[in-house]
Amino acid sequence: QVQLVESGGGLVQAGGSLRLACAASGRTCSRYAVGWFRQAPGKEREFVGGIRWDVGTRYYADSLKGRFTISRDNANNTVYLQLNTLKPEDTAVYYCASSPSWKVRDWARRTDYDYWGQGTQVTVSS
């Protein structure tokens, strides 16, 4: 079992930045993939970006490239999502999810992920 806990959400003005963290514990393994998703009220949960923990390869949703950046801290089993130039439409609950890398065939497919965090709310005011 892997436990994921997100943190770092909050209320920010448009144009501001936040850094979200996803701390992993339990049966963590360096050969895992971690994805970030978000879900706005009344909308489907959508893929934001992901990282392969062992090699550090990153993937991003095309619409979010350039504003969001994913990084990792191996020593603390934590993956970060840096959100820059935030817009009101970025308001959502942000989730991290994880699975062994071999299981993540499609980064955007939620069913490829075995473990999910509880989410952290990001609210961007105009």
Structural category is: mainly beta
- Roughly what percent helix? under 10%
Annotation, overall tally of beta strands = 11
How much of the sequence lies in strands comes to over 45%
Q: What count of helical segments does DSSP give?
A: 0
Describe the structure.
With 126 residues, the chain is mainly β. The chain is built from no helices and 11 strands. The protein has strands at residues 2-7, 10-13, 18-26, 32-39, 46-52, 58-60, 68-73, 78-83, 92-100, 115-116, 120-125. The strands form 2 sheets. Strands 2, 4, 5, 6, 9, 10 and 11 form a 7-stranded mixed β-sheet that branches. The model has no long low-confidence stretch (mean pLDDT 94).
Give the secondary structure arrangement, pairings included.
Layout: E1 2-7, E2 10-13, E3 18-26, E4 32-39, E5 46-52, E6 58-60, E7 68-73, E8 78-83, E9 92-100, E10 115-116, E11 120-125
Parallel strand pairs: 2-11
Antiparallel strand pairs: 1-3, 3-8, 4-5, 4-9, 5-6, 7-8, 9-10, 9-11
